[in-house]
């Protein structure tokens, strides 16, 4: 029996979308079937590029087609539906920024280079704001190194609902990360058009609900990715994280220049890994030099929001998924709390959406 496109489609009728509970064929998600001898390529249009179920869908399609007589090779190509297709499916297309409607302010956390503690600051600053009674969400936009789930101890995957993603709640924060979509240990390969789509979906297609702050963990450095991200949405401003050394400072200067050129306000500087307290004494060691954060803040006429100690407890807390700020009364908790307080005091009223 020769393998035909019709036979493949017939087989795919039984494969259901796990979220919608209906067949992929019926839902119009099978965009194309190509048959060449014993090889089959199926193109599946997901409802969202960042669909949390994409691996399951791909595996189900592959398994079903593999079960057909005469099939030796199966390739499943994933793509995303167009807005028109989605509108047809859900009756109404959620507008591009639907999920952001009730978000009052978006803050971004940036760094001139990787490894300075941008993610650590994002998580602890967000929690410090939440502990002051604000409703806070974190969007992990570091597509290639999404560490937020790890630092918050999140292992579950977000659910999808009507073409929107629902954030996962942890320690009172609402959280969304590409890391939660890929699953632990799965390398994240975002290619071409999927990257742009996923980033847009991450801003607009997450049902954040009412938030006072959405804190965005930007990709590190001064490449295209952080800049595109800050421009794709109105931001209240950027918090710049640096360590006191020279290299970090020259990188962060470049980042300052770039954000300013794009008219994104820089709200202030957080100096991370500022000093090491010698255990059991009042002595501190300035491991990475001193005064860098102050100099930078002065040069760019922005406030120094705070200095965070270099403290093994901060790293351990991050690794354990229980951020340091939760250890009430600790030096680290106090430092992050101060950053939150200063940030609140310098936030301009502009950029705030009234409810
Ligand atoms: N103040 C600190 N004291 C001790 N360890 C810290 C401190 N800040 C960050 N770290 C640790 O340093 C490492 C890098 O931190 P983090 O992942 O937050 O940096 P990052 O700037 O977000 O990195 P990347 O840009 O590569 O994503 C982590 O292991 C973190 O726990």
Can you tell me about this structure?
This protein has 355 residues and is of the alpha/beta class. It has 2 domains: 5-90, 2-Layer Sandwich (GMP Synthetase, Chain A, domain 3), CATH 3.30.300.130; 98-345, Rossmann fold. The protein has helices at 5-12, 54-66, 83-90, 118-131, 148-152, 178-182, 192-204, 224-231, 246-261, 292-299, 312-320, 331-346, and strands spanning 30-36, 39-46, 73-80, 103-111, 136-140, 160-161, 164-165, 168-170, 173-177, 211-217, 237-242, 266-271, 276-277, 284-285, 304-307. The strands form 4 sheets. An 8-stranded mixed β-sheet has the order 8-9-5-10-4-11-12-15, with helices on both faces. The protein has a 3-stranded mixed β-sheet with strand order 1-2-3, with helices on one face. The chain has a two-stranded antiparallel ribbon with strand order 6-7. A hairpin with a 2-residue loop joins strand 8 (168-170) and strand 9. The longest helix has 16 residues, at 246-261. Adenosine-5'-triphosphate binds at residues 111, 114-120, 142, 145, 147, 220, 272-273, 308, 310-311, 314-315, 318.
């Amino acid at each position: 029996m020769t393998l035909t496109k019709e036979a493949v489609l017939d087989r795919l009728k039984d494969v259901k979308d796990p979220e919608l509970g209906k067949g992929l064929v019926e839902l119009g998600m099978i965009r194309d079937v190509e048959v060449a001898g014993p090889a089959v390529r199926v193109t599946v249009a997901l409802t969202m590029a960042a669909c949390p179920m994409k691996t399951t869908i791909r595996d189900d399609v592959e398994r079903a087609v593999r079960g057909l007589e005469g099939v030796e090779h199966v390739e499943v190509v994933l793509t995303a539906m167009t807005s028109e297709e989605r509108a047809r499916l859900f009756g109404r297309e959620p507008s591009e920024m639907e999920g952001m409607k009730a978000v009052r302010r978006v803050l971004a956390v940036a760094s001139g280079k990787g490894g300075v503690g941008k993610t650590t600051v994002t998580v602890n600053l967000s929690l410090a704001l939440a502990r002051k009674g604000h409703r806070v969400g974190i969007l992990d936009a570091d597509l290639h190194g999404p560490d937020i789930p790890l630092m918050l101890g999140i292992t579950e995957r977000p659910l999808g609902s009507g073409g929107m993603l629902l954030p996962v709640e942890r320690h009172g924060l609402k959280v969304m990360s590409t890391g939660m979509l890929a699953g632990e240990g799965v390398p994240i390969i975002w290619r071409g058009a999927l990257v742009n789509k996923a980033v847009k979906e991450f801003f607009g297609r997450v049902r954040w609900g009412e938030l006072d702050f959405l804190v965005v963990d930007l990709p590190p450095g001064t490449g295209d990715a952080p800049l595109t991200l800050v421009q794709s949405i109105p931001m209240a401003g950027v918090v710049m994280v640096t360590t006191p050394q020279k290299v970090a400072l020259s990188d962060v200067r470049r980042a300052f220049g770039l954000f300013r050129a794009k008219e994104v306000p820089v709200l202030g500087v957080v100096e991370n890994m500022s000093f090491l307290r010698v255990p059991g004494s009042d002595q501190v060691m300035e491991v990475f030099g001193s005064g860098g954060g102050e100099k930078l803040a002065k040069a760019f006429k922005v406030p120094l929001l705070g200095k965070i100690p270099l403290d093994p407890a901060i790293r351990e807390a991050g690794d354990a998924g229980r951020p340091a700020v939760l250890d009430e009364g600790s030096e680290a908790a106090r430092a992050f709390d101060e950053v939150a307080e200063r940030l609140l005091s310098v936030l301009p009223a502009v950029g705030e959406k009234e409810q």
